[in-house]
Amino acid sequence: MNLATVDKIAKAVLYEGYMLYPYRPSSVKNQQRWNFGVLCPLPYSEAQKGTEAWRMQTECLLEGGPQTALGIRVRFLQLAARSIGELPIPIPELPPGEVPEFRPVARLEVAGRVYQPWQEAVEREVILPVCNVEALGYTLIHDAFNFPAEKQFEYVRDSGGQIAGVIVRERRAISGALEVMGEMVEEGVFKVCVRVINTTLFEVLKDTSRDEALLSSLVSTHTVLGVRDGSFVSLLAPPESLSKLAANCKNVGTWPVLVGDEGKCDTLLSSPIILYDYPQIAPESSGDLFDGTEIDEILSLRIMTLTDDEKREMSQSDERARQVLERTETMPVEQFMKLHGVLRGLRPLREESQ
């Protein structure tokens, strides 16, 4: 599995929609994010009558033999609720392990910085042991995973060094399972099925919001498959002899495409975002901007036109947003000009025969 090649594309999928322009928590666009590859707990999915998915399925074809080995890894984001608290009276220090009394606030300004509630994210990855493709026809692989709950406190000090506020980051316990099965559909051709399931325990109440469910969800979920001593079949452009088998592959909430160097068939990315075979990150792009509905040049220009107050909120709301702002403001003119008017794939016109 060529992870170095697929990583940039997978990262773009992972953080698509992470934060949208104008990159501030107060903007309406950032009040509801994470619309791609969300796997909610089953009880919430049932309460929403199936409009919110709780599982994802990838089916693909590969050509191989007795020695063909398959590697599978699933990546997703787990959300953490960031809340802000204000101490009634600033205090100089706290004994280790002690948490002060505080009241939750929607906005806290201390020593020239603004702190606001937000949903942050941590990357998660589940890797299955490499398996023999032929053996999948005789057994179902079921691999459960879980990540424990965690709560962290970060203290905010005022200009005099006193503790005036607290940032609370809380992640809920989350659990899921991977199911892998396969079958030989004709000599030397195998169909492989990978399911990702959210098995997190979750109680649905009358007023349970989607934001509540997201804290127990797998977000931006995608699957990376790699094969050794074999090759994947493109489902977008399968050979004629395999077109019917390719059409019978059932993909739910995701779609597998070939990734890596064009012509290589050893790695698939099954993405909740519609892609084509061998997707690429434009070489002119200087880094992630998260908002895939826009192009780098437009987003960079818009960031440059933000007011100082807007930039301050952007830089103080999220570490990744801060990096976007710094990268944009320090972008050399030569790099910026590369974003404008790029032509690719030109070829001479053939003269019509007389």
Largest sheet geometry: 12 strands, antiparallel
Q: What would you call the quaternary organization? A: single chain
* Order of helical and strand elements: HHEEEEEEEEEEEHEHEEHHHH
Query: How many DSSP E strands?
Result: 14
**What is the average of the pLDDT values?**
85
Shape: globular
Distance between the termini: 51 Å
Rg over alpha carbons: 24 Å
Structural class determined from secondary elements: alpha+beta
Treating each run of at least 4 consecutive H or I residues as one helix, how many helices? 8
Helix percent reads 10-25%
Low-confidence stretches: none
Strand fraction: 35-45%
Please, could you describe this protein's structure?
- It contains 8 helices and 14 strands.
- A hairpin with a 5-residue loop joins strand 8 and strand 9.
- The chain is globular and about 75 Å long.
- The chain has 354 residues and is of the alpha+beta class.
- The mean pLDDT is 85.
- Helix content is 18%, strand content 36%.
- Strands 1, 2, 5, 6, 7, 8, 9, 10, 11, 12, 13 and 14 form a 12-stranded antiparallel sheet that branches. Strands 3-4 form a two-stranded antiparallel sheet.
